[in-house]
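Priority: medium. Attachment 1 of 2:
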């Protein structure tokens, strides 16, 4: 399992509320899962960047694939 690093970030009230809504909906279990999902999307959309191993040791490959599909669907809805 890749090493994990704890960091502290500051968010706007809007983003903090969005994270809480995602957790309350059941799509994600923790704020860290929401942030990791967003970072994975950013990696995928950033040309020329290697996508790092995103294994977090808590989710199976199928769960990650479903989460990514939901993320893409949510982005498509907002576009």
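Attachment 2 of 2:
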């Amino acid at each position: 399992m890749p090493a994990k690093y704890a960091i502290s970030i500051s968010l706007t009230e809007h983003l903090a509320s969005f994270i809480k809504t995602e957790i309350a909906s059941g799509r994600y279990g923790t704020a860290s899962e929401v942030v990791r999902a967003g970072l994975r999307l950013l990696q995928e959309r950033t040309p020329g960047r290697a996508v790092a191993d995103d294994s977090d040791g808590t989710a199976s490959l199928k769960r990650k694939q479903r989460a990514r599909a939901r993320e893409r669907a949510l982005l498509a809805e907002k576009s």
